[in-house]
Amino acid sequence: MFEPGNRIPISFTAGALGLFTLLGGCRVGPPYHAPAPPAVTAPNYKESTVNFQSTDGWKVASPQDAMIRGNWWEVFGDPELNALEEQLNIDNQNLKEYFENYMAARATIAEARSQYWPTITANPTWNRSKSSGTLSNSTQANTGKQSTLWNAPIDLSWTPDFWGKIRNEVHEAEYASQVSAADLQTEKLTEQASLAEYFFEIRGQDMLQQILNQTVVDEKKSLDYAQAQYDTGVGDYISVAEAKTTVESAEAAATNVGLLRAQYENAIAVLLGKPPSDFSVPVKPLIFKPPSIPTGVPSQLAERRPDIAAAERTLAQENAVIGIGYGAFFPQVTISASGGFQSSALTSLFNWPSRVWSIGPSVAETIFDGWLYRAELHQYVAQYNADLATYRQTVLTAFEQVENSMVATRTYSQQILRQQAAVKDGQDYLNLELVRYNTGVDPYVDVVIAQTTLLNNEETLNALHVEEMTSAVQLVQALGGGWDRSQLPTPAETGAKTTKSDYTLQQ
Asked: Which residues are within 8 A (CB) of 306 and not within 5 positions of it... i.e. 6 or more apart?
């Protein structure tokens, strides 16, 4: 500790600064190298090379190294879906939550960087005291002296980053913010895909409603005919009863369609950040056919999925934590300085002779802690290894999801072709049965069987169309949508200075 009035030798100052500069370049801990994902030897996805039995079924776009760019939902070519997706990107509350989490992660970078700088504090004080003294026999008064002391000190404390501990903490915060940015993109893709799936489910419900409404109309005609036959004495009442039952069952099914449609509609309203009572999707029975989706090649997948990017950035974050753990083994050097003014009178407090100062370094090193630091380091290494396994499993799961979505879309397209033939044959079956019933060859129960068969085939065909579209959406989601790793902010970008409006309290 240097006492007031002493001069700091120039040689000592230069040597200390040189030592600080030299040691400031040290950084302990293992260097980070991004791990290689599981090896991909196939040049194309397995499902993209399957030979189709019919050229009318769904197939992937060619060339296969193409990729979806930008707003992925536009590949489906529906203006209404496009408008809903754009609104979701603005008003979805889950996305706002993830965005604020990202901004909070960015703020931790500034918190970590603040350790690079010295801490300066001011602690002005005033004190009046009286010392003890002898007591007078006559007055019993204390004859001690009274004194007043004014202090206006400024204290400085700085811990140089000799071993890179602070730098590792900064890097850890930067990588954590990248993880948060990737999580935001993953959530955005999830919300967008959910909206698209709900949208196609609603269109499927509208088509199902149309099918059932037409079924009710057709079966009411059959009921009228059966009633007329009975009224004229040609038919029997059992045919009327069977026709009534068929109509009532179709009406009940048509009524139930509104339940699922309303639930999907309400789900979209919530995705858009609106109360369900303020939102509706116009009724529009449509049959969609999924477009040819450019899948790219397997070697590109790791660069297109934000969840894979998040898993890899988590590894970088954990590697920085290991560096922090290594830094705990080295001594911590703190340079403290204090200066200011001290006087017994306020009027002379800031006079030059009233100045006081002190400066001195201190070194702190843990001699023994029960091997705590070593155990913590082992914990950090184990966590890194666990995250490495998570990263590789995330990549494998991504390949699985792509292949599953491709096989689902292809299978549904092939099944639709056969189901369309079943619907046509079911209609022919019903037409023939109506002729046989009208000519008195078959009872009405055979007509009911034919009607039920046709309705089941139509419902199945409609459900397959919906499944085909939702599996196409899931394929785009599995491919990462229109995102790629180049859109992930760099550590420098996450640590860039933010504006006051970025952290305005929302009401």
From this structure: 182, 183, 185, 186, 189, 480, 483, 488
Please give the pLDDT value at position 152.
84
- Degrees, nearest 5: CA angle 272-206-88: 10
Whether 452 and 493 have beta carbons less than 8 Å apart is answered as no
Once rounded to an integer, what is the mean pLDDT over residues 378-390? 96
| Residue 297 three-state SS | coil
Nearest-angstrom CA–CA distance, 308 and 36? 12
Residue 148 phi, psi (nearest 5): -125, 140
Q: How confident is the model at residue 7 (pLDDT cuts 50, 70, 90)?
A: very low
pLDDT tens-digit map of 491-503: 999 988 877 666 6
Residue with tokens 């500069």: 21
Rg of the chain over all Cα atoms, to the nearest angstrom: 39
- In angstroms, what CA-CA distances link 177 with 190, 271, 466, 491? 20, 25, 38, 8
Taking alpha carbons only, the member of 317, 334, 365, 384 closest to residue 112 is 317
Amino acid making up residue 482: G
- Domains along the sequence of the chain with CATH: 28-91+162-330+371-497 (1.20.1600.10)
State the average pLDDT for the chain. 87
Report the DSSP beta bridge partners of residue 150: 126, 343
Could you please report the per-residue DSSP string of 177-225? Answer: HHHHHHHHHHHHHHHHHHHHHHHHHHHHHHHHHHHHHHHHHHHHHHHHH
User: CB within 8 A of 502, min separation 6: which ones?
Assistant: 103
Per-residue pLDDT averaged across 215-229, rounded? 90
Q: Which position has the token pair 């419900």? A: 205
**Encoded amino acid at 398, one letter:** A
Burial class of residue 366 (count of CB atoms within 10 Å of its CB; 0-12, 13-18, 19+): exposed
The alpha carbon of residue 446 and the mean position of all alpha carbons in its chain are separated, in whole angstroms, by: 55
Which pairing describes strands 146-158 and 332-343: parallel, antiparallel, or unpaired? antiparallel
Q: Which of 333, 300, 337 is nearest to 478 (CA)?
A: 300
Tokens encoding 404: 């599953």
CA distance 388 to 480: 21
